[in-house]
Amino acid sequence: MRKLLIACASLTLVFAVQAAAADRPGGFDRTGCVADQSPPREDIELWCQPTNCSGAFASNVDLGTFGVDTESIDDFTASSYYAVTSMAWWGVRVYDLDIEFFLVTVYRDNGNCGPDESDIVSEQTIIDFDEQPTECGYYYSYEALLDPVVMEPGGHYWLCIRAALVADPEDVYSEWYWAMHDTDVLCPALYRSDFSGFPDWIAPNTAQPGYSPADAMAFCLYTDGLVANERKTLGDVKKLYR
Asked: Of the given ranges (7-11, 58-62, 155-159, 231-235), which has the lowest mean pLDDT?
């Protein structure tokens, strides 16, 4: 059954056409619906850039036979010796998609505002995740636990979140779209899709000219304060709880 959640009736859904990508848009573009979708959490927040439901970009692992693979990725800096143990993120879907899992990958930065794909810090298959509707139609919030991801405080990293599903190459609504943050943070987010004609990383607004949201993805990282880098000190622990 297809779900069409119309929470902001005055807003219109627009998929901009990108001729260079075989008329297959990468972005889900609409006017913002709410200012902040940050979830209340008991865990300690390490990084957070929520969505205002202004747009989203495709990010999928195609489990079907057509290879409609897309990747969106954004950077962040580690703020603590504590490991990331859970995360929240936001996405767009129009149909009631059968998402088998999310593939979550963390890379180190390559020193030039891009992921070092030879240096994967963590790659996890997230089967157990919580999906909830938001106040803005088609936008959903997600939360999941992670195996601890230990990083160096101050280190520069890249996060990629992809939904694993069967995509229909003739129907853009069969895909999942990672929601976007409303302001560029650090380096611009990046997008890649061989299927859509973008084999190399490129900023979403460059891949789809005229796209209105900022080049940034929406996600929050948290720690339960139980797993830490070996270099953690008592002073670092105190700072985390201030």
From this structure: 7-11
pLDDT at 36 exceeding the cut of 70: no
Tell me the percentage of the chain whose pLDDT exceeds 70.
77
User: How far is the C-alpha of 41 from the C-alpha of 63, rounded, in Å?
Assistant: 33
Top CATH class, 42-241: mainly beta
In Å, how far are 109, 163, 184, 197 from 200, measured between CA atoms? 16, 20, 20, 9
- 3-state DSSP call for residue 236? helix
- pTM summary value: 0.83
Contact 101, 128 (CB under 8 A): no
